[in-house]
Amino acid sequence: MSEDPSPSRGPPPPLDRPPPPDHARSPELSEEARLVGRVLDGDEAAFRKMYRAHVDRLYRLALRLTGGNDADAEDVVQEAWRRAVRGLGGFEGRSSLATWLSAIVTRCALEKHRADGPGVQAPGPRLEAAPREHTVLDLERAFERLPPGFRAVLVLHDLEGYRHRDIAELLGCSEGTSKSQLSRARARMRELLGEDYET
Asked: Which of 14, 29, 145, 152 has the fewest CB atoms within 10 Å, counting from its CB?
C-alpha cells in the first residue's frame, strides 16, 4: 500500500531554466560530478535520481533545524531545492553534493526563523526521566527549546557529524563561534535533560 508523499518528498520540482550548452563529459570525473553535469544539461532523469538520493536526508535535517515543525521543514526543503536548481552551476565539487545541499537547507532554515520572528519560548522545566533513560521524544522536545543558532550547530556537529571547519563554512561564521555555540547548546541540553546527556 503506497503512501501519499508529502510535497517536499514527492515528485521533484521541474527544472525551470534552460540548460547551459555544451557541458562536456570526462571519464575522470566522479560519478557525482557526472550526475551534476547531466542535471546541468537538462536531463530530468538525472535530476530525479539526485533528488531521490538526497531528499529524505535533507528533510530529516530540516525537521531537526526547525524544531520538529513539519510544515516549516517542508517549506525549507522546497525552498532549498529551488535554490539548488538555480545554483547548481556554481557547485564546484570542493565539498560533496550532500554537504553543499545541507548548507542550503541550513541557510534556508535559519532565514525562515529570522523571517518568522524569534517566537521565544519559555525555557520550561527540566524534562523528567531516569538517568540515561531519556526517550527520543525527550530529545526532540529538548531540541525544540534550543535557540536556532545553538540547534543548528548541535544538529550539524553531534547528529550529522560535521567538523567545526565545515560548520563554519555552512553557517558563515568562524570556527571559534561554532565551538562556542556547540558548548552552549550542550550546556542547555544538560539543563533540560540532566548531566547524563551524552554527545
From this structure: 14
181 and 165 fall within a common domain: yes
Measure Cα distances from 116 to 68, 110, 119 in Å: 16, 10, 8
Shared-domain flag, residues 87 and 102: yes
- Measured distance CA(152)–CA(110) in Å, rounded: 8
pLDDT at 93: 80
C-beta of residue 32 within 8 angstroms of C-beta of residue 91: no
Cell of 90: 556554481
Cβ burial of 190 (10 Å; 0-12, 13-18, 19+) is: middle
Residue 15 has pLDDT above 60, yes or no: no
CA distance linking residue 109 with residue 124, whole number of Å = 23
- Residue 62 corresponds to which cell in the numbers above? 530540516
Side chain identity at residue 172, one-letter code: G
- Identify whether residues 163 and 197 lie together within a single domain: yes
| pTM for this entry | 0.68
Grid cell digits, residue 16: 525551470
